[in-house]
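User: Can you recover a sequence for this backbone? Please restate the input before giving your answer.

Assistant: Of course. Working from this structure:
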């Protein structure tokens, strides 16, 4: 669901996003925003710019757990130490 609020443009062309808006989108100082201009409809769209890492977080899952890999490494080292390769 979208919600709207009216904000003012200051003398330097800046807009302050209300705290409620920043909280809803998880925005904080330094967050990047994408500004889109729809000239036909005379509107500006401001959206949270996600990094590639944020966008694809959790999409790729490891085939094995780290604990399993560490155990395999330990076993390989032990076998190599025994000369059982």
């Amino acid at each position: 669901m979208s919600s709207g609020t009216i904000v003012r443009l200051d003398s330097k062309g800046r807009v302050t996003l209300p705290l409620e808006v920043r909280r809803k989108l998880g925005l904080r100082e330094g967050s990047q925003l994408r500004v889109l201009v729809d000239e036909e409809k005379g509107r500006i769209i401001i959206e949270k710019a996600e990094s590639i890492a944020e966008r694809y977080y959790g999409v790729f899952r490891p085939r094995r757990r780290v604990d399993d890999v560490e155990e395999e490494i330990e076993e390989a080292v032990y076998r190599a130490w025994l000369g059982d390769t």
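That completes the design. The longest helix spans residues 66-82.
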